[in-house]
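Q: Could you fold this chain for me?
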Amino acid sequence: MDFQNKVIVITGAASGIGQVTALAFAKEGGTVVVADINEKGGQKTVEQIKEIGGKSIFVRTNVTDYQEVEQLMTTTIAEFGRIDIAINNAGILSELTRTADTSLESWHRVMKVNADGVFYCMKAEIPHMLKQEGGIIVNTASIAGLRGLPNNVAYTASKHAVIGMTKTAAMEYAKKNIRINAICPVFTVTPLFNPDIIDQVSEGLVEKLKKGIPMKRFADPIEVANTILWLCSDKATFITGMAMPVDGGLTA
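A: Sure. Below is the predicted structure, expressed as structure tokens.
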């Protein structure tokens, strides 16, 4: 996959799936704009990209603030002249509680980042892609956007929202040469999902979660990143409006 001369904006790129995806694009020649609220982690991602000979800048961005999201796009255009690919990946987990026990604060916090954040990004990205007559967007959803996930009502609702927005926007802009898809990873080993910490909180939960996955393991971030790169490549030019599971067979 060749991303030479392509400008890629990735939110939530200071760690986890976003960071690994940023490095994967850079290795394939892409110019990467790293966006995150975590400045230290974002700068580290940029440094890692430059160490392998890639081109990258960091733009501190809180995706729950539309003005900051707009500024991210404005900065990218000013620096590189275009936005070829946007990976709307920033997200957070919810508290592990049943629906009636979920606090209003937790609900609004998760929805603001996971749902509003993706909407804000697409709203700011699409006008630039219309001007340049094309572009590609991949939104990070989850298997929780394809099925229920007990004790995670806010997270599940937010990821269902991501898939709904993805399908709607994909239909709206299909004739404008803008492809919009979502990925739906299963539990992926990242700082947000650390098996060692999970087992300390709830003994035996890690093995229980693995048993539900036909491949009997969690995803590696590079497996998710490779899926994102494929969806953004010339190998997937007729795919839009898709919510692609990356789940070791769980949703099957």
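A (continued): The helical segments are 16-27, 39-51, 66-80, 104-131, 153-173, 195-201, 205-211, 221-232.
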